[in-house]
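Before a colleague's protein record goes any further, I have to sign it off. My question to you is simply how this chain folds and whether the tokens agree. I do not need a full report, just your reasoning and any doubts. This is what I was given:
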Amino acid sequence: MKNNFIKSVLAITAIVGFAACNPMKLERVVDPNNPSLGSVANNASRAQIQFLITGLESRHRDYLFTVTAAFGTFGREIWYFNASDPRFQTDWLGQGGRQPDAAYFGFGATGGAAYATPYQTIRQAIVLRNSVLNTAAVNEQEKKAVTGFAKTIMGYQFMIPANFLYENGIRINVEDPMKPGPFVPYQDALTYIKGILDEGLNDLNAAGTSFPFNLTAGWAGFNTIEGLKRVNRAIAARLAVYRKDWEGALNAANASFMSLAGDLNTGPAHVYGAAPDAFNPLFYVLNANISTVIVVHPSMIADARPGDLRVANKFFQRASAVSVSTDAGTLFGSHQDRRWPTNITPIRFIRNEELVLIKAEAHAQLNQFSQAVQAIDTVRVRAGIGSYTGAQTQAALINEILYQRRYSLWAEPWGHRWIDTRRYDRMNEIPVTLDGGRVFRQFPKPQADLNWNLYVGG
């Protein structure tokens, strides 16, 4: 059933359930514990709307491990060691001349977590939006709250495949899973995403003050309408940087939860729990005798400035290095991730620290150097490396900001350095000497999607 990619990826047959192991296979599943798509399409109950919201939160985190590990590997923030399958080293690092193809390992023919999973989340959001608009159980103001939330998540998720495929473009019209729209160029996709986020903000502006349904603890501090608007603008600020819309980035950051005086760790989070929930996928026991683990790329240690608290707080030096050998050689990791105290620690998907650095970057690009330095120093001083004393020129400040982003946003969803070096045409700065690999600029359209095009003639 190789031609059923869009059917299986974009058509939701259950609300809270996760995707089947084989996304190429389309089956009718009857789940007595979860309502069918048809049962919520018209006049869904408030309980069913709540199920859809909870399901959307669940799907919203599904991308995290593979995308963060892969994008982080591409940018040499990390290496992902997996002794049971050396392709996580050889293929992801481009060793031995390996190049990404339409069936690239780790993402599979469907594009996996960087392609199929975000679209599953987007479809979940579309189902939620349509269901709440077609029910009398929710009043008009409450409908605006729910659609604003759904569109905010959609905006975030669309950026994942957009940055994965980059100049190869993505599909943006997936309203009808059986007739998806054509691929559009990267910049057109970003413009479309801006429209979604702006629509979400407009909906939230008409939604009163209280969000009418329950969100998980990951939204603590943001579970009001005002809080959701600030998250929407935070995501819009990240998008504006990709679009090189510097005034837009400043405006969005200022309307978000960005605060120079606030806790840099503030932000909404993906939450985790014990079974039947999922564990934090980035958690590994410190110093464990294991051969499957995310390790800090050695360049992160070598390039760190003395006294940087981010190094001490994020990187744990193992008693003995972990290593993995492939036909391309042996790699050694002396440090591992120490950010997660337990296997249920939440993972913030956007933080105040990123927003402060977005503010700094926008000011620098607009030649507003004193404001840029103020934002840079907000990060530097708290990292224990003192105030910025370098040249106040655009080139010098951008160099400084990219350096600070490298350490402040290390291995965060969804892998910032790979994208940062690409948007500044600096991918040659990503170190490959230690692994003998190469740096990929972008990835092809997944094979199954190409097969779908052949099938439908699109």
Summary: DSSP finds 17 helices and eight strands in the chain. Strands lie at 78-82, 170-171, 183-184, 269-270, 292-296, 315-326, 329-337, 347-348. The domain at 1-214 is CATH 1.25.40 (Serine Threonine Protein Phosphatase 5, Tetratricopeptide repeat).
